[in-house]
Input
Amino acid sequence: MKQIINGKLYNTETATLICKFPVADIYVGNDIDYCYFIYRKDNGEFFAQYIRFDDFDNNLQYLEPLTFDRAARLSESLMGVDEYVEVFGEVEE
Output
């Protein structure tokens, strides 16, 4: 997916997938209805791809630029420690 936001191109095909986060819809049970994918562009910028699935095989997708801090906070519980440090750098003990 490609999208221009504030004059910048965000492209899921050329960016590096950092992690993904499935979210179960509490009204549907444990089915995965939403999913976030967090990407890093070659220039170091982060963005999220949001996808919502419905019962008719339609989906709503959009991209959202993320600050470094927001990307780090969203990713910290989704990545292993070594993966996290590789992407976001060392953290305090």
The chain has a mean pLDDT of 86. The chain is about 15% helix and 45% strand. The helical segments are 68-75, 81-88.
